[in-house]
Amino acid sequence: MSLLRKLTPCLMVESLPDISLDLLWEKGVRGLIIDLDNTLVPWGGFEIPPSAEAWLREAQEQGFKIFLVSNALEERVNHFRENLDIPGVSRAQKPRRGAFRLALSQMGLEKNQVAVVGDQIFTDVWGGNRLGLFTILVSPVDDKELFFTRLVRRLEKRVLKRLKT
Q: Dihedral, CA atoms, 123, 37, 137, 20, nearest 10 degrees?
């Protein structure tokens, strides 16, 4: 598999609420691995946008299992695990596969039943694609990010440009 293919999401949308839960269900997806920072909430923020929270609740009501997988620190991830009553893992070391495998195991689902949702090609998409999961790239919720992430975004823009041609 070429590197460009490993970095190519199965689906690209503007934001979490733009993901059609009906479409995913029709594809056989029953579980969602969701990134935290700049996917679900602004980087460093502690408040979930109402539209994202409504989408999460709708997903749960439709029967999707949800698992947070984040490279953020444990205290941060625990805040959202407790407030949303959703399991998750911190310090995931994405794109490494360990946290994704843990999520699959905890949800009791097979690879072909799970989608990964995130805002970064080099962590969320690459990590999900390495396991053969359905990957969904969303635009970042906010411009505020770690310095290193801002540098990686430059390379991401080049990859996205190649994907669109």
A: 140
In contact, 99 and 89? CB cutoff 8 Å: yes
Side-chain-side CA neighbours of 136 within 13 Å: the count stands at: 24
Helices (H), 40-97: 50-61, 74-84
H helices of the chain, in order, are 3-6, 21-26, 50-61, 74-84, 98-107, 126-130, 147-164
Q: What is the pTM of this model?
A: 0.86
**Cβ pair 57, 77 in contact under 8 A:** no
Write the single-letter amino acid at 145: E
Q: How far apart are CA 75 and CA 83, in angstroms?
A: 12
Tens of pLDDT, residue by residue over 119-144, are: 999 899 999 999 999 999 999 986 66
Distance CA 12, CA 48 (A): 21
89: helix, strand or coil? strand
pLDDT band of residue 156 (cuts 50, 70, 90) is: confident
d(CA 139, CA 118): 8
What residue ranges define each of the domains in the chain, with the CATH number in brackets?
Answer: 3-164 (3.40.50.1000)
